[in-house]
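Late entry, written up from scratch paper. The run itself happened at the end of the previous shift, but nothing got recorded in the book at the time, so transcribing now.
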Amino acid sequence: MKFIKIMPLIIFSLNLYANIPIDLKKDCKADKKESCNDIGVLYQMGKEIKKDYQKAKIFYIKACNLESANGCRNLGDLYSFGQGVELDYSKAEIYYIKAYRVNNDGESCNSLGELYSIESWEEYNLTKSRTYYNKSCKLDNQDGCDGLQYILNKIENIKVKEEEYILLKKELDESVQEAELLEDI
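Output as recorded:
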């Protein structure tokens, strides 16, 4: 009876590693985190093997559980872009933060900066976005520096629009006051 229960698990395990380079298979089975991440990348990108986001997710989870910043960040990307999973920015955030904490990773900070700048997300926050882009830039990630410049420009544009609004409101108030004075005459 135990054989019947174990057999589907063995078949699934064999299919999971089918067509994967032998050294990566061996290393991932031996809990070498970056090999597990690399297998996830192969499945996510469809390089050398058929694209399969579900299998990529399995290997990214294993890599992330083994403290691979790349595995955690790549798992976050699956959720951030809705690849093989439901789009979920909150889950992406969790994995990006874990990746940053594992390795003080500039790419993960950049991913967090991007995430917080998504206006359709309920956690949209330009201050947090700027903070993470700044960390990424300080960790020598050029994408982080570019993102920081983008966010600073966006914040400046918002400030200019707020100042324009205040001036327009003041002009409107003055116009209303003038109209009220004219009515009294």
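Confidence is low (pLDDT under 50) at residues 1-14.
(Scratch paper discarded after transcription.)
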